[in-house]
Design a protein that fits this description.
alpha+beta, Hypothetical protein af1432, Beta Polymerase, domain 2, Ubiquitin-like (UB roll), 5 domains, five-stranded mixed β-sheet, 30 helices, 21 strands
Length: about 750
């Protein structure tokens, strides 16, 4: 935790004795009377261990450092936290400052205590360094989400409270940062957990160190006002006691003074002077039962005149942190407005200590408290109900360990910006949350300085660094694991853009080749008049759209080429007869489209049919499906033959490039004799042949003497496939190995 240590100066014997007394376990013993003997013995062991670990360390005040863990443990004891929490409070700096390891704590004190200390150590490594409100809220949520055990947050708040009480001993340059963090992060967390007393104290302490001059001035003003209104307060107290006594109601009345920070905040927010803040003082009326709250409200309204619009029923509709009270503002003696709060003892306990009320209820035996008195937030209510059902701490924490913010995780960028991500989000989701360019070009990532896969799920508190490459593009496989709608839509948008670019390139290639068959060497790049006329003919809005449509099969390249040739002829450009002779040929002297060269690098614009799975070396043909781009089949494919019979004008010649740029999938069927290890032998033969297995399917007739294994393998070309089949046929237990040439043979 944040600690104020200095190197130990030489001390005299007498000062050492004084310090030893202040660091004694006896300071804590009186607060631990609620623990049984075994628990007390365990806490004593934790104290001795912490005392030895911090031996020689001093705080800035000159006190032994152990006085800080003792003070934190004492606050936890005030809340009646269990022995494990008090032990963790004593040990909370042991891992961070003394080099004690988690396994050592597990061995000495058990896993639960070690987990609490480990959780506190992780929280200590988080630093909040901005006053931006939404970042402060994210930081608070991240702290709560990281501390799956509520006791971690309670100990952390006790630690921060003691550090704030002693902040004057710290170097002055630290005051601003620590006080700002306390005001923006830890005070609201205390409020969220219903720890109102701690919440108010942290606010006032932060105010004192952030605005010392204003704090001093306001403190004097409140002291003067308190003196002037002593008679008024006494009269109100007397009137209240007399009224409730007359009606036979047993109540406890306590004065309530507005905190300095809340007075200052109200003056700032509403631009008021101190004299205009009228509700500095108030009274709490603690009554025995729920119904007495409303009865007491009626008596108060008979005693003094209520101020219109100043009544709030936080019992019927409690605050999110479980707070319950009736609030009303009345015009008291001398016309001074006085605020009153009415609540039961149980409500008062929750109002002051929030989630810690679980242990206080258990200790004080409030089993008779009615369900109505415990109305509040569902989360806090569940804690208060569990103590009625069981005293088993393990069962209690099974209920409490649910994250306070279960739907989000909070992570850091390398520059300490906090990002809220949905639970289950991956590194790719994080990259797109930063910026679409980061997501589009992400190639690798580190979490907490360790290399991880892009599909890794992020966790609370992770520091994530994404490496990008301007030449990288989104992988379609990312759609299988991303969780956020933003990432999914950006990936799809980018893939569509890439597909359009690929189709445009293919369309340009097809149009150039079709144009060469008409005797024109190249496209007329800079002739806008020709292109305008061609676009009017095709109905496209732009040259890019026309080329994309050709690549997608929405326009026939040969038809567009003929029109373009005619337009060029009108401007006097004549076809090259030699080029026509070289490029144009066909059966029965018919004109055919020129061949499209493919090498496997065409991405989404060219698909290889799964019915016949063509590979380099096969005789192939291309089918331009409407809006589907170019699909490549083997010439003998049955599916292609049927399509050609119905839609022959959409077929064009396709040839393999001399140097394909990747491997291609094809299917094989291997018939084997059943036996032990046969599959391994077949896989080994494929590996020796440098063929990658991408899919395998086996027949279910396990009892038969022979069975078929069907593989989809990736090979470079037809010669490699022939070598694969030869190796398989030479493998023992292989009866037959052959290529699958149509889809009916592959029953996957």
């Amino acid at each position: 935790m944040t600690s104020h240590k200095v190197s130990p100066p030489p001390t005299t014997k007498s000062s050492a004795e004084v310090n030893a007394a202040s660091a004694s376990f006896a300071r804590l013993t009186s607060k631990l009377a609620y623990l049984n003997e075994n628990d007390l013995a365990s806490v004593r062991l934790a104290y001795r261990f912490a005392d030895e670990a911090h031996l020689g360390q001093l705080r800035n005040s000159g006190e032994p450092y152990i006085t800080h863990p003792i003070a934190v443990a004492a606050q936890c004891a005030e809340w009646k936290l269990d022995a494990q929490a008090v032990m963790a409070a004593l040990l909370h700096d042991a891992m961070e400052d003394c080099g004690i390891t988690k396994p050592e704590l597990i061995e000495r004190f058990g896993p639960p205590v070690a987990e609490l200390v480990d959780g506190l150590t992780k929280l200590e490594k988080l630093h909040f360094n901005t006053r931006e409100e939404n970042q402060a809220e994210s930081f608070r949520k991240m702290l709560l989400a990281m501390a799956r055990d509520v006791r971690v947050i309670l100990i952390k708040l006790a630690d921060r409270t003691h550090n704030m009480r002693t902040l004057s001993d710290a170097p002055r340059e630290k005051w601003q940062r620590i006080a700002s963090e306390t005001l923006d992060v830890y005070a609201p967390i205390a409020h969220r957990l219903g720890l109102n007393q701690t919440y108010r104290e942290l606010q006032d302490l932060s105010f004192r160190f952030l605005r010392p001059w204003r704090y001093a001035i306001l403190s004097k003003a409140v002291a003067k006002a308190r003196g002037r209104r002593r008679d008024l307060i006494g009269k109100v107290q007397t009137d209240l006691e007399a009224t409730f006594s007359r009606y036979g109601m047993s109540v406890r009345i306590a004065g309530r003074e507005k905190t300095l920070y809340s007075i200052y905040a109200k003056m700032e927010e509403k631009n008021l002077s101190f004299a205009q803040v009228t509700d500095i003082y108030g009274f709490r009326v603690i009554v025995p039962h729920l119904i007495d709250c409303y009865t007491g409200l009626g008596l108060l309204h008979q005693l003094y005149q209520p101020v219109p619009g100043k009544f709030k029923d936080h019992i019927a509709i409690s605050k999110i942190n479980g707070y319950q009270s009736l609030h009303t503002t009345l015009v008291g003696p001398s016309g001074v407005n006085v605020e009153f709060q009415l609540r039961t003892e149980a409500m008062h306990l929750v109002a002051e200590t929030g989630v810690a009320a679980h242990w206080l209820y258990k200790d004080e035996g409030h089993a008779e408290v009615s369900h109505g008195d415990r109305m509040g937030s569902k989360w806090l209510q569940s804690l208060l109900d569990i103590q009625d059902e069981t005293r088993d701490a393990a069962e209690f924490w099974d209920h409490v360990k649910v994250d306070l913010f279960p739907d989000a995780v909070y992570v850091f960028t390398p520059k300490s910006r906090i990002m809220a991500m949905p639970r289950g989000a991956t590194v790719v989701d994080f990259a797109y949350a930063i910026h679409s360019n980061v997501g589009d070009h992400a190639v690798s990532a580190k979490i907490n300085n360790e290399q991880v896969a892009l599909r890794t799920e992020v966790k609370n508190g992770d520091i994530i660094e994404v490496t990008t490459d301007p030449n990288s593009t989104p992988n379609p496989a990312w759609l299988g694991f991303v969780r956020t709608a933003r990432a999914r839509s950006k990936i799809r948008q980018n893939l569509r853009t890439m597909a359009q670019a690929d189709s445009q390139q293919l369309g340009e290639k097809m149009l150039v080749q079709a144009l060469r068959a008409e005797g024109i060497e190249t496209l007329p790049v800079n002739n806008n008049v020709i292109w305008d006329k061609l676009l009017r003919f095709s109905g496209n809005r732009s040259r890019t759209e026309l080329l994309t449509d050709i690549g997608l099969g929405k326009r026939i390249a040969s038809i567009v080429a003929k029109r373009l040739t005619n337009l060029l002829a009108e401007q006097g450009e004549r076809p090259d007869a030699l080029l026509i002779t070289r490029e144009r040929f066909g059966e029965n002297n018919a004109v055919a489209q020129a061949s499209v060269q493919i090498d496997g690098g065409e991405n989404s614009s060219v698909r290889f049919a799964t019915c016949c799975r063509p590979i380099p070396g096969d005789s192939i043909v291309g089918y331009l499906g409407r809006g589907e781009g170019l699909t490549v089949h083997t010439i003998g494919c049955q599916v292609a033959q049927k399509l050609k019979h119905k839609d022959s004008e959409r077929f064009l010649r396709v040839d393999w490039s001399d140097e394909p740029v990747r491997t291609f999938e094809t299917g094989i069927v291997v018939t084997i004799t059943n036996g032990k290890g046969v599959l391994a032998k077949v896989a080994s033969a494929l590996a020796v042949s440098e063929a990658d297995i991408t899919h395998i399917d086996m027949t279910s007739d396990a009892g038969e003497d022979a069975m078929d294994l069907r593989f989809v393998i990736a090979v470079r070309d037809l010669p490699q496939l022939d070598a694969v089949l030869r190796n398989l046929r030479r493998t023992p237990a292989v009866i037959r190995a052959e290529r699958i040439t149509n889809a009916s043979q592959f029953n996957t």
